[in-house]
Amino acid sequence: MEYEKCYVYEPEGQGPAKRRQIEPQGLQASWKLRREAYQAAWRAQKAQIDAKLSDLNAYAVRSLTAFLDEAAQSPQSSAIPTAILSTGPEASSSTAVTEQLSRDQNAQKCRVFLSISASTGPNLKALLKAIIQKATSRQESPDDDDEDDEVTTRKKGAKLLNYDLQLLADYVSERQLEQVAIAVGDTEGFDSDLLSELVELLGYWCDRIPVVLLLSVATSAESLQQRLSRSAVRCLKGQMFDVAASAIQLEHALEAVVADHPTIWPGSDLIGLILERQSDYIQSIDSFTHAIQYTYMSHYSANALSILLIPSIKFANIPPDHFEALRNVDSFRQHCRGILDDNQASRVRELLDSDEKLFNLAADSIRDLRDRLNSMLPAMKLLQHIQDILHSYPVTPTMPFSKAYKLAMAGRLTQDSSFIRSMLLSVRKSQQHIIGQVLQAFNISSIPATFRSQAETLGKELIRLSASAAGENVQLRSEESVKNSTLRTTVVAQKVELSKQKATLSKRDESYTKLLRRLSDLLERYFGEALVDPKTCLFHELVVYDLRSPYRDTFTPRPRQAIERALATPHDYLDCDCCGPDAASRGKEMMLASSQPTTAVLYQLYLESGSLINVNDLRQAFLAVTAEDGRSEEENTALFQRALAELRSLGFVKGTRKRADHVAKVAWRGL
Amino acid sequence: MPKRRRTDNAVEEEESTPQKTRRTAQNDSPPSNATTPSNRKSILKGTPTRGPNGTSVVEPTPKSLRKVLFSTPAEKAEAAEEQETPTATRNDRSARRKSARTLQKQPDDESEDGDVAQDTALAEAILDQEDEIVGEDEEEVVVADASSQPTADTPTKRGRGRPRGRPKKERTPSPPPDLPPHELYFFQNRAGANKTSANTLAPNLLLNHEDYLTNINAYKDPHEQDIKRLADLHKRAFDQWTFEREEGFNLCLYGYGSKRQLLMDYADHLYHSSPKPPRIVVVNGYTPGLTLRDIFTLLAKTVLPKSTKLPSLPVPLLDLVLTHLTSNPPSPPITLLVHSLDSPTLRRAPAPALLGRLAAHPFISFIASVDTPQFALLWPPALLRQYNWLYHDTTTFKPYIAEIDVVEEVNALLGRSGRKIGGKDGVAFVLKSLPENARNLFRILVIEQLGAMSHLEADATLGGGDVEDEDEGMLGVSDDEDAAAEAQATPSRRQKRGRPPKKAKAAVTKKVVAPAAEGVEYRTLYHKAVEEFVCSSELSFRTLLKEFHDHQMVESRKDGMGVERLFVPGMGRGELEGLLEELV
């Protein structure tokens, strides 16, 4: 079958039909359970992300709907009402919006919504055909492909070509349509002349067909204007709409991932990788969703202990070998070490002997850990908020949620981290209106009540202080604020001395300073309590998923490196006895060895050569290497030919006409 | 060192050119010339180029000894000149060459004294100057070398007096460690690294299909066990793949080695392990004649009811299949298994986009293998979104048995026709069924073409410097004896095969008449044919030619002068010679 072009697979023989239905053994025995758990968990997660994203689009969709309604109401003028959606570099955000729109709009009988893109057709004729076909939702009969003279009969006599807009006009008047909305997916992808022609033509017809255009631009309206011809621009009556940029969408999607009691939390390394890929390769928001989905998949399928994440799991449902695995988890070992250090060996013994005890411990600690992680979210929010407030006057980029999340999960927002320190420092220097905002920011329902009430009292004091200060028309000043100290330079014995001079503080200022200290203490305590390093918690392996390699390998492969590695050091893959680096040369570069696969031998010879390779010499060298194996020269030549053919089809060499019997090197290693 | 590695082939080539017919030179050339390559590593690194003027021919006189000392730098200078060729130095070079020749001639012409002595003095003066230039050139080369590999050791060779036995340039085969990628690029593309020998691959060295197959079938891979273990390792991931596919992802398998068997094993696994076996459509992407229509038609036949009339063009066909799938979803999704998705046939313009639409459909599950390391360039982001790949490294180390036609591939790589219809074997086959006359005519054509070829090559290798010699030939100054020597030297040495001297001579004369053009003039061929009693009239000549034309064994082309030329297309010198051997 290997030389057929394509065929439907038929199994060879009836042999092993039932043989493979073996029940999985060991830790895989729980796969069925885990799979169901995965499906439930992911379905919930997906729904949350989708809801968040459609919320995000909702504004754009609403405003666009209003625009369309207005256009439908107002009488047709000479120009086409046009909505210009500015989407940023990722066009998929606009597709989501238009899809939602088309769902809404097509539900209404009196409107038609259709979308075209650059790939719809290479010329005006094809575009018009597509537009008419989509608008009239006429099923194209199978074999009318290129027959342009195909005609459609009208009730009123004359026959029309299938790209005549009169067809659309008839359809519109027949159904008494109010509006035909055409969404143009990627205006940048269109040939500018083609787009201009299309717009002009629609402009001529807009007294008979109530057209509305939705152009999505990734660049700017100015560049769209430049690309269109002047007469085409004259046909348009544009209005700008902003669709949420993909970066913002991403932030919201990430928030949705962790917001509402998720079953697993992606770790900081993983999130870092995912975000990096999103920004480096301008991926759509879908790919982020897929990455999260794959995280769930990997965790549930590869980590048998994820069975403990099932909400309704009972001790009896867990196979005993899973507990053995649980005892090998790193955080559990550390936990035991801690107990032992407290001289409570009997407790450790219990945990090691009794599965049930272990189960209870695991269930408890997983619940604890989840609670802690959940309580991290408001802290992150607060942190983000305070950062926003603090940095509002110098224009620095505020901290996005993704960054806060990444830092928090990496355990870099703990009490004595530099980040928190510097933030508290700037809080202590801040002015009263900023402090007021910070105190207001505390008013998030998910922050524990004790902290909120303390913040409230602080807020009251602040109001009192500022009221009395306002009476005297002075600003409250903090002791630590730079503005309150002046630098003095004095020259003493040809050396410059800097000395700080603190301005004298009024009583009120002193109490303000105290208030700031208390606030900073409050913040410190709160963050210290809420933001723990998840990696120090017991059984964090089950709840926080932070493995990078499955994601990296499946989403961002490095095929070139894989092939080069296979050919340069085949031992890495084959793990054979013959080609491995011997003890003497360990650590050095792999050497050519006759035992290596022949293509690898040839590839390494190829690496040594310059940009042109003499095939005869290459063959000689190859034979010289492989001769050690005691094969006949003919056989080696056959192997040489095979290796050379493989290198060619892999795209490493190509023929050259520069010199006879030479080949050109095309791929350079490690580039 | 460079001479040591010159093969017999090259020696013959050099000596067969008409300019170097001095037998004394051949006999007295240093013994190192004859050695064949033995060092496997260095053979590719600094393979020698011989100075086109043949200055390394050694004369036993003390004067020429001096030249030998610097012959290697002289080559070097030429190599440097290849990159930047100022006309001034080129002129200089021809003067130098002339003077070198004068010096060489001396022992022969010693009897006639007179202004010879003067000439010698002048020649020596020029050569001295050359040495200086060479010295400078070499310095330049060394400096350039040092700058191109900054972390390498400082070049050891400076100055002119260099021991003969050492390699021209000591290049480290592997780059210095920890170079940033851009430096690596320049390291690997450094100038002057691409000096290769002029050796050619004799056509009989490469195996044809039969020999290849017998040999490759006889070959037993010592790594068989390891390869099997690797495959088993991949097979353990089958269940994971199934899971991933069921979750809506498509799979893309990459890595070195044929993944065909692995994928077929997976199809097997899929078929037997699932409660309701899915329909699996297998596409062999590597088959050269594959079209998108084939794929879509097959899909349509598996999906649609039998009576449906299928459109002829791929796009509507695809639309039909997709709409049908949307309205009647199959219970396990259709599995589409594509081997070598990045093959040349599936790489071309509409294929990735259309297959992407297939892949994006929720009821088609796509598994593909890709072979080339650059496959990722096939898909822009928008398409990638449709494909929704998960990639898996499945390096198998299995030979591409079905995917690659090894013999053809190598022949195509080297620009040889191999066994195609127009190729050597094909032509020989056609000729067998033609009458004697036709065979004779073709033989003449091949001989003429070979003659023209050798002339062309001589031109190419000797460059502009030998214009005088050609002039001599044109003017008929070269005496008969010389011509005879040439005739003997040219064909017989090159081919090691007895050929009637008459034809050899003919080839030589031909060379003089038609310089620098491919093939044979129509007129000339006709006259030769009449001379040899192959045909008696132009009409019969044309009839014979037509037969060749019909089998694409001959092509005609107008050259720059508007003269019609005939030639055998698509064959190199080696193949023509082989053909000739069969004909005679």
Automatic annotation (TrEMBL), chain A:
GO terms for cellular component: DNA replication preinitiation complex; nuclear origin of replication recognition complex; nuclear pre-replicative complex. Residues 560-634 form the Origin recognition complex subunit 3 winged helix C-terminal domain. Residues 25-308 form the Origin recognition complex subunit 3 N-terminal domain. GO terms for molecular function: DNA replication origin binding. GO terms for biological process: DNA replication initiation. The keyword DNA-binding applies. Keywords: DNA replication, DNA-binding, Nucleus. The keyword Transmembrane helix does not apply. Belongs to the ORC3 family. This is Origin recognition complex subunit 3. It comes from Saxophila tyrrhenica. The lineage of its organism: Eukaryota, Fungi, Dikarya, Ascomycota, Pezizomycotina. The gene is ORC3.
Automatic annotation (TrEMBL), chain B:
This is Origin recognition complex subunit 2. One of its GO terms (biological process) is regulation of DNA-templated transcription. GO terms for cellular component: nuclear origin of replication recognition complex. Residues 24-41 have a biased composition (Polar residues). Residues 127-142 have a biased composition (Acidic residues). It comes from the Eukaryota. It comes from Saxophila tyrrhenica. Residues 1-181, 482-505 are annotated as: Disordered. Belongs to the ORC2 family. InterPro entries: HMGI/Y_DNA-bd_CS, ORC2, RecA-like_ORC2, WHD_ORC2. Signal peptide: none annotated. It is found in: Nucleus. Residues 516-569 form the Origin recognition complex subunit 2 winged-helix domain. Residues 157-169, 493-505 have a biased composition (Basic residues). Its main location: nucleus. One of its GO terms (molecular function) is DNA replication origin binding. Component of the origin recognition complex (ORC) that binds origins of replication. DNA-binding is ATP-dependent. ORC is required to assemble the pre-replication complex necessary to initiate DNA replication. Component of the origin recognition complex (ORC). It holds the Pfam family RecA-like_ORC2. Residues 227-394 form the Origin recognition complex subunit 2 RecA-like domain. Keywords: DNA replication, Nucleus.
